[in-house]
Design brief:
- The chain is of the alpha/beta class.
- Helices cover 41% and strands 22% of the residues.
- The chain is built from 12 helices and 15 strands.
- The strands form 4 sheets. A 7-stranded parallel sheet has the order 6-5-4-9-12-14-15, with helices on both faces. Strands 1-3-2 form a 3-stranded antiparallel sheet. Strands 10-11-13 form a 3-stranded antiparallel sheet, with no helix packed on it.
- A hairpin with a 2-residue loop joins strand 2 and strand 3.
- Helix 7 crosses helix 8 and helix 8 packs parallel to helix 9.
- The protein is globular and about 60 Å long.
- The two termini are 32 Å apart.
Length: 287
């Protein structure tokens, strides 16, 4: 079982039971105590649970909210300016990224040409695409995205090339942009470090935005795919204003005041819902 699958099952157990013992998790997930210990440490670091002696418990949302309210605004903003590598970001908010990716796939049609940048949410979308579509052209500067789709049946993969950045696991520099003057893309699924009405689309480093900007120029439509931790956040480097994007797809934890402000500014905001919740709603409606 993949670590992401274990994390999801642990989250489900905590949601239903409130707390769970390590021994129970070892039995249910067929994993060693050391594996479960690492899983719980990772999930605690991501703010998904609180470890206790012999197991873990669900976070108290009231305490969590009050903690966030006690953090100075300056500290919250500076946190968004700290650079985090691809490997580190991939472990953060992964459940919400999966939800966003599943929702984003609903806006893709067979036969289209789409662009996926080097963000971790783009990789999650590539994993969905691999199993859902059989006639797509995917343009990317991301080595993990390329590896995910390299042997996917019916997927025509176009890799930009360029200078390889090991921290980002992506091809960057002007060399990676040359192809975009020769191709037409239907949809760019753009990831970001932050998005707000005031500052638009922002990133951690200047070298991140060169390829994304050219991808946007070659695309008929740009859809931002961003988990809720990016909504209302301003990172260091501005790429563009929100007037250049058609839609934002995020998860249900996005701050309501921020999504409302984005919609009032003319950007459509689509909220991905939990798969389980959707299934229950469909069952209730008789679908």
């Amino acid at each position: 079982m993949l670590s992401e699958q274990r994390y999801e099952k642990i989250s489900d157990l905590l949601e239903n039971e409130g707390s769970v013992k390590t021994s129970t998790l070892c039995s249910l997930l067929s994993a060693s105590r050391e594996t479960i210990r690492r899983d719980l440490e990772t999930m605690e670091a991501q703010g998904l649970l609180r470890r206790i002696r012999g197991g873990a418990m669900k976070l108290d949302p009231v305490k969590s909210d009050s903690h966030m309210q006690s953090v100075p605004v300056q500290e919250m903003k500076s946190e968004s300016l700290q650079y985090a590598s691809f490997d580190k970001r991939q472990k953060q908010h992964f459940l919400n990224k999966e939800k966003v990716a599943r929702k984003a796939a609903e806006y893709i049609s067979e036969g289209q040409a789409i662009a996926l940048d080097s963000g971790t949410t783009a990789l999650e979308l590539a994993r969905v695409i691999r199993h859902r579509f059989h006639s797509l052209t995917v343009v990317t500067n991301s080595l993990p995205v390329a590896a995910e789709l390299a042997d996917a049946e019916g997927i025509t993969l176009v890799l930009t090339g360029g200078i390889y950045n090991s921290d980002e696991k992506a091809f960057t520099s002007d060399l990676a942009t040359l192809i975009f003057s020769r191709i037409n893309i239907d949809i760019l699924f753009l990831t970001t470090c932050g998005i707000s009405v005031e500052r638009g689309i922002t990133y951690q480093r200047v070298d991140e935005i060169i390829v994304q900007d050219r991808m946007m120029e070659a695309s008929g439509k740009t859809i931002v795919i961003a988990d809720s931790s990016k909504i209302g956040v301003n990172s260091l480097v501005k790429m563009c204003g929100i007037d250049r994007i058609s839609m934002i797809i995020t998860d249900s934890n996005a701050p309501a005041e921020q999504t409302k402000a984005l919609e009032q500014a003319g950007v459509q905001v689509v909220i991905s819902q939990d798969q389980e919740r959707n299934e229950k709603e469909n069952e209730f409606s008789g679908e």
